[in-house]
Amino acid sequence: MSNGFLGYNATFMLDLVVCALVFVVPVLAVSIFLVKFRQNYVWHRRLQLFLAGVLLLAVAAFELDIQVVHHGWENIVRQSRPDISAADFVFARTVLHIHLLFAISTPLLWALTISLALPRFGNPPAPSKHSPLHKWLGWTSALDLAMTSATGLLFYYFTFVKR
């Protein structure tokens, strides 16, 4: 197993996704700040579409790497941490299952939020009758994405960093 670039015995794609998870929450916060406090709807939309595109590409590449190249996360862990105890492996699996609850719901919520917003806010975007639903979907998506990031980072930590 070749080491990733973060210095732990994980794959390059795992390290890349960890960096994306750290990057996405601050950018999301900036996007929310711009729309909530500056009423800058154009930049809010640009940042949301940018984040959605980056994450779509990163997750697609990540899944190909995990499933096709390495034949599952278990193989990566067994190769990179042959000394992992059975209890630690079960714990990592549990953390991963919690992560997957958020990781699967996040793109679905985000896709719904974006697909409803694009035709309803016009170009340039401006508040409309859709705003209350969009605000609820947006906050739900943002919290879901934050939980995806937090649980993904926990999985990485407990699987590759903690000894």
Describe this structure in words.
- The chain is mainly α and 163 residues long.
- The chain has helices spanning 12-37, 41-69, 73-80, 86-121, 131-161.
- It has one domain.
- It contains 5 helices and no strands.
N-to-C CA distance: 18 Å
Helix count equals 5
Broad shape: elongated
Query: Low-confidence runs (pLDDT<50, min 5 residues)?
Result: none
Q: Give the percentage of residues in beta strands.
A: under 5%
Taking the sheet with the most strands, its summary is: none
Query: Helix and strand succession?
Result: HHHHH
Structural class: mainly alpha
User: Overall mean pLDDT score?
Assistant: 94
User: How many structural domains can be distinguished in the coordinates?
Assistant: 1
> What's the helical proportion of residues?
over 70%
What distinguishing features does this structure have?
163 residues, mainly alpha, 5 helices
Question: Secondary structure elements and their pairing?
Answer:
Blueprint: H1 12-37, H2 41-69, H3 73-80, H4 86-121, H5 131-161
Quick structural gist:
This protein has 163 residues and is an all-alpha fold. Helix content is 80%, strand content 0%. The protein has one domain (12-161).
